[in-house]
């Protein structure tokens, strides 16, 4: 069975492959390199094609929680850039 992979438009920082959306065994979405198993790059939070203003990383990740709302975080180790947006209840 062939499953089409949904591209995120992000280039893998490890081997310059395409980062695609995948589903885990439990049905949770995650984002990994299309060159798996040759490349093991994985993100559990949705990547956003926006550079980090602090460290100039090429992308941020989006994390949504009930407590903090929508957060844009830098995925680079050592960088602590966080932007928070409140979720509106409708």
Structural descriptors:
90 residues, mainly beta, 2 domains, 4-stranded antiparallel sheet, 0% helix, globular
The portion of residues forming beta strands comes to: 35-45%
**Principal-axis shape:** globular
User: What's the overall average pLDDT, rounded?
Assistant: 84
Q: What is the helix fraction of residues, given as a range?
A: under 10%
Description:
It is a single chain. By secondary structure, this protein is mostly beta strands. The chain is built from no helices and 8 strands. It has strands at residues 6-11, 18-23, 29-33, 42-43, 46-48, 60-65, 69-74, 82-85. It has a 4-stranded antiparallel β-sheet with strand order 1-2-3-4, with no helix packed on it. Strand 3 (29-33) and strand 4 (42-43) form a beta hairpin. It is globular, with a radius of gyration of 14 Å. The termini are far apart. The model has no long low-confidence stretch (mean pLDDT 84).
What's the layout of helices and strands?
Elements: E1 6-11, E2 18-23, E3 29-33, E4 42-43, E5 46-48, E6 60-65, E7 69-74, E8 82-85
Antiparallel strand pairs: 1-2, 2-3, 3-4, 5-6, 6-7, 7-8
